[in-house]
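Hi, here's the filled form for the chain we discussed.

Project: internal
Contact: R.S.
Residues: 135
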Amino acid sequence: MALVRAADVITVEDLRIANMTKSPAPKPDPDQAGVFLSNGSAAKAGLNKNILDAGWGVFLAILTNKAESAGREVISVNPRDTSRTCPTCGHVSGENRKTQADFVCVVCGHAANADVVAASNILRAGLVLRDARAA
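And the returned structure, exactly as it came back:
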């Protein structure tokens, strides 16, 4: 696996796939007893299928196994705010995410692709965790 050969440390988001694929809660209609409002369950079912089809959990299991066999380390990082934290000044805000793809820090003006920002924050957090374990 090229990823394992290319890096001594691999950091990933610690995504809770089971939580991401839960069905939406029913919405009771406040005006009619026993009647429920639309809760987007059809759209959520399609999203759940896509999440599960991606095989993220299987990929991580294989990656971890291959990395351990090669003497590499895989570190899981809490995904909270990874795509909303400025890698330059550290400011955390939902307003930093202008669109799904665009990140512009409202404090320092740092601009980049939001996925690149998240990846750099995930890597940084993983390296901090590794250093804390070594200390």
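Let me know if anything looks off before we file it.
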